[in-house]
């Protein structure tokens, strides 16, 4: 048995004998909701992973490597002061609910108000969600997630791409347009200045997302 992961799969060991035990990965395929996630996730015996859902179908993906983890951390530190100045709060991975059978766990997010311990964050409370693109998540981060976030009405979507092999860092900030689709609001590569006044002021070289 395998669980779909963007452009790849994570193998999930099948039991040696069919014991007739309830297997949520099989029995709940296509019908996942936050209520069911609260009840059955994480799956016992699986390694630590992200659990996301698109139209009732569970998407399981490994946690990011150190390059993306550091980039997400730096984005949080850069955004925290100006976002807090507007009364917003910045967070690492959390559950953003996009519909009754859709949710994502973005690499970082800016909420319009403090989460105060909530497990499920409604899309209406998310001002910005951000993803650090990896080879296994390229299609999801470039196409699937932006489309779902736009449909849910999240005003900003940020995409970050870093590569130590290429000494490359790129930031693209998308803003929801009048037609309900994202448009490029600001973009920059390492060596240039990423600058925006909305949703809050930011000005820095994307190279700061690469460790020294």
TrEMBL record:
<dbReference type="InterPro" id="IPR011335">
    <property type="entry name" value="Restrct_endonuc-II-like"/>
</dbReference>
<keyword id="KW-0378">Hydrolase</keyword>
<feature type="domain" description="Putative restriction endonuclease">
    <location>
        <begin position="40"/>
        <end position="203"/>
    </location>
</feature>
<dbReference type="InterPro" id="IPR012296">
    <property type="entry name" value="Nuclease_put_TT1808"/>
</dbReference>
<keyword id="KW-0255">Endonuclease</keyword>
<dbReference type="GO" id="GO:0004519">
    <property type="term" value="F:endonuclease activity"/>
</dbReference>
<keyword id="KW-0540">Nuclease</keyword>
<dbReference type="Pfam" id="PF05685">
    <property type="entry name" value="Uma2"/>
</dbReference>
<dbReference type="InterPro" id="IPR008538">
    <property type="entry name" value="Uma2"/>
</dbReference>
<protein>
    <submittedName>
        <fullName>Endonuclease, Uma2 family (Restriction endonuclease fold)</fullName>
    </submittedName>
</protein>
